[in-house]
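A reminder from the course coordinator: this example appears on the midterm review sheet, so study it carefully.

Given structure:
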């Protein structure tokens, strides 16, 4: 089954990119949110002149820009106005809260929001909902946002990394593997991604997790974590990191130490990581297709405003991507941000 999914990646991405704009029937059926987390979508309306704010937690992360590019492309196809507003740093929580407060006063019909602090954003989200603004949370699978929202759009982080573990189990067979884990900063996202991977290898006695450390979500942290793990445990044969930035840093550490036979697994589908996979420097990642996620988020938002979406969580696609199937992704640069460094 895994091999079939990998073979069909290009067709899946192509079909989603072409059809998601056609309407609500073309993206996966929504799963219910917790009752306390679901806003009353019947309060929403579309006056024909739609204006939408996309508000990621920061502009420093290419991943969120890629989501924005998908939102922008889908907005252009539907003739609606979209603008992006975000602080430069993901640590600037107060900056994002101030921007949300400002946007609520700017006569927008909807806010597509991703935040690093749901608790801080909750009172402002509640105010937006009360004013009849549609609020769609993107890049999340949190079924219970602290205050009711109209929709949540994102990939299941635990399912994605579980699929990566399934891929790994099939690939290595009965070979013994010593595993090092590089976590993100403590929190929901790291817990879910690491948890899904560990769930996937659980029960397979040939896998032994020898150590788990934090890599801080960035290349530098991943490099330090990878160096520490590989030096402290020279028998490690596999490193899993909770995002692509950290596994790219770990790849640099492995190269510096001459560890050319260590498997390196990440999560996100960042363009740079996809190119590292094509070059043979990283083994595989969970490609979460942020551009397509943005397209779906925009269409869900429009369907909510048009009365064609009843609420809930829409799960966006993920595909395990390795050297065997990465080229079709890199050969579709219009669906990537940043663009690949060269033509493939």
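Designed residues:
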């Amino acid at each position: 089954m895994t091999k079939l999914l990998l073979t069909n990646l290009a067709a899946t991405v192509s079909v989603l990119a072409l059809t998601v704009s056609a309407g609500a029937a073309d993206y996966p059926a929504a799963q219910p949110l917790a009752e306390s987390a679901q806003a009353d979508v019947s309060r929403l309306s579309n006056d024909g002149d739609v204006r939408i704010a996309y508000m990621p937690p920061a502009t420093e992360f290419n991943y969120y820009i890629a989501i924005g590019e998908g939102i922008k492309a889908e907005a252009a196809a539907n003739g609606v106005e979209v603008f992006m507003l975000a602080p430069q740093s993901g640590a600037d929580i107060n900056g994002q809260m101030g921007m949300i407060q400002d946007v609520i006063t700017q006569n927008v019909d909807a806010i597509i929001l991703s935040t690093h602090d749901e608790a801080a954003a909750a009172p402002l989200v509640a105010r937006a909902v009360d004013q009849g603004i549609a609020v769609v949370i993107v890049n999340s699978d949190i079924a219970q946002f602290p205050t009711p929202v109209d929709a949540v759009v994102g990939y299941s982080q635990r399912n994605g990394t579980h699929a990566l573990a399934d891929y790994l189990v099939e690939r290595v067979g009965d070979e013994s593997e010593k595993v090092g884990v590089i976590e993100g900063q403590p929190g929901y996202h790291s817990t879910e991604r690491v948890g899904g991977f560990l769930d996937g290898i659980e029960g397979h006695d040939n896998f032994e997790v020898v150590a788990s450390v934090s890599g801080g979500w960035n290349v530098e942290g991943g490099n330090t974590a990878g160096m520490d793990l590989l030096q402290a445990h020279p028998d490690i044969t596999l490193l899993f990191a909770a995002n692509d930035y950290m596994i790219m840093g770990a790849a640099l550490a492995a190269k510096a130490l001459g560890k050319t036979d260590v498997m390196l697994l990440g999560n996100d589908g960042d363009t740079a990581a996809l190119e590292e996979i094509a070059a043979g420097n990283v083994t595989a990642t969970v490609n979460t297709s942020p551009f397509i996620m943005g397209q779906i988020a925009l269409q869900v938002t429009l369907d909510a405003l048009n009365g064609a979406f009843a609420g809930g969580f829409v799960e966006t696609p993920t595909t395990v991507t390795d050297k065997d199937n990465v080229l079709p992704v890199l050969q579709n640069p219009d669906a990537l941000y940043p663009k690949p460094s060269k033509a493939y």
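Residues 1-25 have pLDDT under 50 and may be disordered. The CA atoms of residues 215 and 225 lie 6 Å apart.
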